[in-house]
């Protein structure tokens, strides 16, 4: 069923709602004393800011504010003069008590969070889990979709640890330390050099020592995941919330408490990381032992590889076995599995270190370390196949229960998963290429073929992946040019529309052009699905080309053995060189940006905006993703609303801007029904339908937003045509009920100079909704309507 457009304004807010007409007798509910509102009690306006954060002074319009509850991470503030406002109800008889919930430190607080940029692929793949289409009754297909996303997430962990092994074991300990010319220029590698002839000079011992680096990285990821869970996501939800089997998932008691799944996935991914390091050591060592005819060591190698395969099978089983439990507040942990699985993998790593460190005087390091090229090739192939399977599953789900305006017809999740894999590949290739260039000095790793070439370089697949970066950038450039021209043409088409909206004003070409451009640019948001489809499709095709090239041509693209290179070889060589430079530059830019954000609070706030959008959702696919701030913010808001209304028996309006509107809606869903009847919802600049409803249809689709309106009749949404983020929620009410969407607000407030606006009024776009007089009027109207919800209600179903 297609989504209906925004409904026009309905009856005045003060008009009492007439009961909807439905056939058959209706039995009215008995009055509930718990939901009766004290007419003399104060009213409260709970403000929730959006992305980028805000200070309590800015939100409350007063330099003197006091924290009334919360801590340094997230807290509720009031004006200092309003701290005891409940004891002085006469001072706020005609206006609500304003208080601000400030949650910006959850995403952009201390400097160490800038390092979360390195976890960007994990955050992106976690979004793919929540982008699935609506279920449509096919529970088995929904579970399979979740399994596929978790497997894609597992490959990203394997890719990260494999990249660390490539840098530490292959490039550094195997290739550079095994080359006299390379190790001779690095004093810190002297004790590992073959020219030194010391105890550590044997290849097995060198790579065994270097294995500490990827093992430490895996341990660090485990520690960060465990620590951030304790600091951010281990908040107890409000007890007493009723489970509605037919209601949306965000209203279920266990939605914002995924401790069991995160612990299971953390154990599995940690074990997988240790097993990758152990496999890198064992594969190279066992290959040498088979060629050296060492029976005892050969048997040990086969036994260890068999044990590692068994451990890998257990890891995959744990990842696939169980998904999220949302229907109840689940505090049970699989303690045996959570503890034994990483410990067992760590024991396997220790045995692999001892096995590789056994004395083998005849072993010498030549070329690349065995197993690296195959590992990256298999990981890339697995990612491509998993993304394709995910796309097929998403199409099946969308066809069974199609939802109008769903982004990419349900293929948003697979597209985002593909981009996560591409980001992982870029970061992997960037690290390997830059380290290889640094170790090789003035040479180009893998390009020299003579005996004096110090390094063979990273696996060829990483070089082929670098070669597809320039074509991908050309796709991005083409998209930018197309939508730039389209926006400019739309600006010209909107000029008469803007002027028609101000018939009494004298036309001003410059002013009209600016307003039309703001409206045209705001509409780019609605074309994001097409942009993502083009980008992810190009990434999938180019990734397949890179994998095919690495398999068919096991050499660096563009390297001619003899004579003058052909035109195709010249183009390939240029693409490889440019891609290698770009991929390294991109990684350095990422590190530099993170370092700047560590020192500069303003830059840290900019990075925090990325996490405001990307880490709203719980960690359902990847346990090493940045923590979910909503698992702290939603319980905070729910507890505050429930305890204040219970204590004062007053009316409350929760007022959310931008991402704050999403938090507000999620918090209202979690309220007990008796509390929800005392609460009004005011959203403005809200991406509830425009972004979340389209990209996350199973959680913010039309049915979910309609359910929210059925539960919260006092809901009003404000939006502007110039807002690139917020928009109408497109909920059509039943006959006689108040509409949710207000008509589009004027922006700017005045076209030209007026008595009220003697200076040019700014084009506000997504900001400063409270500057519009409509804001205060709609807020007060919502508070005036709240007592109606405490009258006897009819059991009128809403379809």
Question: Which secondary structure elements does this structure contain, and how are they paired or packed?
Answer:
Layout: E1 43-48, H1 56-60, E2 65-70, E3 75-79, E4 97-102, H2 105-108, H3 120-130, H4 139-176, H5 180-184, H6 203-210, H7 212-233, H8 259-292, H9 295-321, H10 335-356, H11 372-400, H12 412-440, H13 460-467, H14 469-500, H15 509-522, H16 528-552, H17 567-599, H18 601-614, H19 630-648, E5 651-657, H20 659-669, H21 673-676, E6 679-684, H22 688-695, H23 697-700, H24 702-711, E7 715-718, H25 773-785
Keywords: Membrane, Transmembrane, Transmembrane helix
Organism: Streptomyces cremeus
Biased composition (Basic and acidic residues): 78-94
Salient structural properties:
799 residues, mainly alpha, Rossmann fold, 3 domains, 7-stranded mixed beta sheet, 25 helices, disordered N terminus
The structural domain count equals: 3
Strand order of the largest sheet: 2-3-4-1-5-6-7
Structural class: mainly alpha
Tell how many strands the DSSP assignment holds: 7
Low-confidence stretches: 1-33, 446-452, 789-799
Q: Kindly state the mean pLDDT as a whole number? A: 83
DSSP strand content:
5-15%
User: What is the helical fraction, as a range of percent?
Assistant: 40-55%
Distance between the termini: 12 Å
Number of H/I helices: 25
Compute the gyration radius: what is it? Answer: 30 Å
- Give a short account of the largest sheet: 7 strands, mixed
Form type: globular
InterPro entries: AB_hydrolase_fold (IPR029058)
Organism: Streptomyces cremeus
Protein name: Integral membrane protein
Region (Disordered): 1-94
